[in-house]
Amino acid sequence: MRFVRDAKTFSSLPAFREPIVNDSIVGVCIGNFDGFHRGHQQLFRTLEDSLSSLTRAQGKLPLKVLLTFEPHPKRVISELSIGETLSRPEYWRLTSIRKKIELASEFGFDYFFAARFSRGFSQLAPKTFVERILRNPLSPKIVVVGEDWSFGKNRGGNVELLSNMGLEMGFQVLAVSPVLWEGKKISSTMVKDALGAGDLKRVRVLLGRNFSLSGKVRKGTARGRKLGFRTANMRFYCQVLPRDGVYATYAELDGEKIPSVSNVGVRPTFGAGERLVETHLLIDGGRELLSKNISVEFVERIRDEICFPSEDQLRAQIEKDVKRARDVLS
């Protein structure tokens, strides 16, 4: 993306302090986009097609903006503290703000805006929301939302109201129908359920790609190194993870995509601890991992996490896991 601005840049109101000023035609997709699943991607395609037609007709360049909210409105409105959210998986997210920025770039967006969502923000009248969040900073010509999207105080704004405001303010609103799979609307909840079941095939269908996580490598206990399998360890909070177990994965590190094997779980052989994602690079090279940003892509589930009677038996199983992961990724 040519410009990235995360949620920390903004106070509650107004969300954006500076307008986008250029000769491009601006198109905006609005939503929470937790997961960037195929339903969200339908919005992206609609924006791409409509914006391309308009810019060709006027001889200008398209500028695509993703507008989302941080933290997730559902958590703010529920008035849960961070501590309370840790014990409520239904409020956990599929996609961190860091991962959203990565995915927005991959899907061809030029700008990423995250409006800081607060109780005060939720009380904005629908017209004020549109004026402060859309018209003044972005000046869009096309706005794309899901057909059931609502906004403003008490969710008082809907697509019809937004369309009427668009007629007054100079932008067109396109409402996109949900994408169905097996007769049901693809949703973030559907993806979460598939991850919880360890069903990566279903996850891949719903996302249109493999599920991935991004984070910073943290210091661990070095047990993997002692077993002969050095790992990059990541901790996540209020983040939906695949079902505990061992997976064939790819790790992206320093721009390089490296075959790997990952364990999600609590390491019961050593006494259950905090839940981690531990990734062993199949092509290591002795590179420094600590504090590096890493992205892990889950390709295939190999087995459940198991408590082994001894470290030797665990080591023997890890050797089998590594061989299986090599076979899968080759």
Defining key terms:
about 325 residues, 6-stranded antiparallel β-sheet, 6-stranded parallel β-sheet, 14 strands, single chain, alpha/beta, 11 helices
Tally of strands: 14
Unreliable spans: 1-18
Q: Mean of residue pLDDT?
A: 88
Largest sheet: 6 strands, parallel
Strands of the largest sheet, in order across it? 1-4-3-2-5-6
Helix content: 25-40%
Distance between the termini: 32 Å
- Rg on CA atoms, Å: 22 Å
Helical region count? 11
Taken from the alpha-carbon principal axes, the silhouette is elongated
What does the model show?
This protein is 34% helix and 25% strand. The radius of gyration is 22 Å and the shape is elongated. The N terminus is likely disordered. It has a 6-stranded parallel beta sheet, sandwiched between helices. It has a 6-stranded antiparallel beta sheet with strand order 9-14-11-12-13-10. Strands 7-8 form a two-stranded antiparallel ribbon. It is built from 11 helices and 14 strands. It is an alpha/beta fold and 330 residues long.
